[in-house]
Amino acid sequence: MKPHEIIKGIFIVGGPEITDHRDGCVYLIDIGELILIDTGAGWSINKIIENIKSIGLDPTKITKIILTHCHIDHVGGTPELKKRFNPKVYIHKLDAIPIEEGDSILTASRWYQTTFPPMKVDVKIDSPMEELEIGDQRIICLHTPGHTPGSICIYLDKGGKRILFAQDLHGPLLPEFGSNINDWNYSTKKLIDLGADILCEGHFGIFKTKKTVLNYILSYRRHYGVE
Predict the structure, then answer these.
(1) Is the bond into 172 cis (omega within 30 degrees of 0)?
(2) Dist. CA 172–CA 188, nearest whole Å
(3) What percent of the chain shows pLDDT beyond 90?
(4) Total domain count for the chain?
């Protein structure tokens, strides 16, 4: 798979089928400035930057990185991108702690036989819903605990479609990550209520049409026995 435009102004530029098999999916929003959602595991930064250039965009215009949760396959590239382009880094306050402490278990870096260097976070999301207004575009960050205590999902309305970034909606739900099935149950209900037209997932790619998105979420609710 190659990096490509999902809907006007929204791209996938990294992920297990695009950069490195260890990477979670990396999405890019172009609204005059560039916003990255997650950064992969860290081994593919040069490739991600090349991919951004290949779709005709300038990586020096990355002003914000929104991290959906603290696991290294989603945050590992952040320190290097911060060093090169100095974007503001956003994450929920509960998942900021493992990032700032370089916790090898809660960042799952031990799973990947590597380490995550402690890194300061610029903006700690501290509400059930955080809204970013950039020009005339609203980007909503929802606190959706379950996979981790500080997991967030992001959505925006663009081109008549609602696009939802729900990276590790599928889990896994493991005690060592601080996962909580009751929180996950509540969070996935909130995601269903959004009625998204397009789901950009963290490892399994992109799902289009309301029905496909709904069925995907329901499939994991059945998997975890909450339906």
Answers:
(1) yes
(2) 14
(3) 96
(4) 1
Model's pTM, two decimal places?
Answer: 0.97
Structure-token pair, residue 179: 């996962």
Q: Which residue carries 């819903």 as its tokens?
A: 129
Question: For the CA atoms of the chain, what is the radius of gyration?
Answer: 16
The tokens for 225 are: 């026995």
Structure tokens at 37: 């959602």
Q: DSSP readout, 160-215?
A: TEEEEEETTTT----GGGT--HHHHHHHHHHHHHH--SEEEESSS-EEESHHHHHH
Could you tell me the residue range of the domain that residue 130 belongs to?
Answer: 4-223
DSSP state of 81: H
Q: Give per-residue pLDDT as tens, 38-77.
A: 999 999 999 999 999 999 999 999 999 999 999 999 999 9
Do the beta carbons of residue 61 and residue 34 sit within 8 Å? yes
Report the pLDDT averaged over residues 164-169: 95
d(CA 174, CA 180) in angstroms, rounded, equals 8
CATH of the domain at 79: 3.60.15.10
CA distances from 22 to 37, 47, 76 (A): 16, 13, 10
Q: Residue with structure tokens 């609203």?
A: 138
Q: Which residue has 């991919």 as its token pair? A: 51
List CB contacts of 18: < 8 A, sequence separation 6 or more. 1, 2, 3, 12, 51
CB 171 within 8 A of CB 201: no
Cα–Cα nearest to 156, from 176, 175, 132, 174: 132
